[in-house]
Amino acid sequence: MKLQGKIAIVTGGGSGIGAASCHAFAREGARVAVANRTLAKAEAVARAIESEGGRAIAIGADVSRSADVQRMLDATVAELGVPDILFNNAGISPSGRVTDISELDWDECINIDLKSVFLAARCVIPLMIEAGEGVILNTAGTFGIRAAKNKAAYSVAKAGVINLTRSIALDYARDNIRCNVICPGYIDTPLNEGFPTNARDAFLERYQPLPGLIGAGDVAEMAVYLATDAARMITGQVFVLDGGQQAGLFA
User: Fold this and answer.
1) Rounded distance, CA 101 to CA 83, Å?
2) Which of 31, 83, 99, 155 lies at 20 to 30 Å from 226 by C-alpha?
3) What is the pLDDT of residues 185-209, one digit of tens each?
4) 121, 136 in Cβ contact below 8 A?
5) Distance between CA 195 and CA 199 in Å, rounded?
6) Residues recognised as catalytic
7) Closest CA to 181 of 214, 216, 223, 152
8) Which of 19, 29, 91 shows the shortest CA–CA distance to 58?
9) How far is 90 from 232, CA to CA, in rounded Å?
10) Cα gap 175→93, rounded to integer Å
11) To 5 degrees, how large is the angle CA 111–CA 109–CA 196?
């Protein structure tokens, strides 16, 4: 029970990496606030955790909106207590070049993938300072390290998440708040459901040195480690989980 007594908020907790992380945190003893734009998905994850003997609450929230983020925090504090862990995981992954993507779609991606991290951190950090410690984790992606074709808004947003992570780590280290970012490669989650199996397999064969699919649970295990005291001296770092893709130049 590596997180016994801890309280965690996970955004985008209704599916994929977020849901897997909610279950992993709960398994290690944390009480979990499952936040998701679709409340029904958050409720399903929270019910599953409670059926397994854990403690979880569901919160419907659009984390690109400051009022929703504040409501998410208020509900967590009221029902579980002050959060020790904030995992900013909510995100979307639209396609499009600069000349293809609409201004509306650009703004939506930046707001959900990047602005949400700022809003949640801004709300939670004062409580973590008062508590004397805290852990913030963010999900970016390998496209935040190296841009990809036809992914302009997503690549920009995730690159911003990486440097926002570093800024938070530097600015609040003396308050005993750690902040790190996880950059998955191709993950077998609902976010990638539109990727045809044959195209996916061809992509992995060409670009991922290690064989096999990376699952949401793999990312969740890394999140658990970074949230524990075993990682107490790790902050401001980028953790790449991509089967070796970033080890060399793309073919």
Assistant:
1) 37
2) 155
3) 988 777 776 677 888 888 888 889 9
4) yes
5) 7
6) 154
7) 223
8) 19
9) 25
10) 33
11) 150
Instruction: Pick the closest to residue 36 from 9, 67, 54 (CA basis).
Output: 9
Closest to 91 measured CA to CA, from 168, 158, 179, 136: 158
Confidence of residue 251 (pLDDT cuts 50, 70, 90): very low
Residues in contact with 182: Cβ distance below 8 Å, sequence separation at least 6, in sequence order: 137, 138, 139, 140, 219, 222, 223, 226, 239, 241
Lookup: tokens for 186: 């191709």
Angle made by CA atoms 89, 166, 5, in degrees to the nearest 5: 55
What are the tokens at 65?
């909106």
b/e sequence 126-155, b meaning 16+ C-beta within 10 Å: ebbeeeeebbbbbbbbbbbbeeeeebbbbb
- Strands (E) in 143-184, as ranges, are 177-184
Assign 220 to helix, strand or coil. Answer: helix
* CA angle (63 as vertex; 36, 231 as ends), nearest 5: 80
The pLDDT tens digits of the residues spanning 105-147 come to 999 999 999 999 999 999 999 999 999 999 999 999 999 999 9
> Cα dihedral sign for 21, 25, 26, 32?
negative
The identity of residue 17, as a single letter, is I
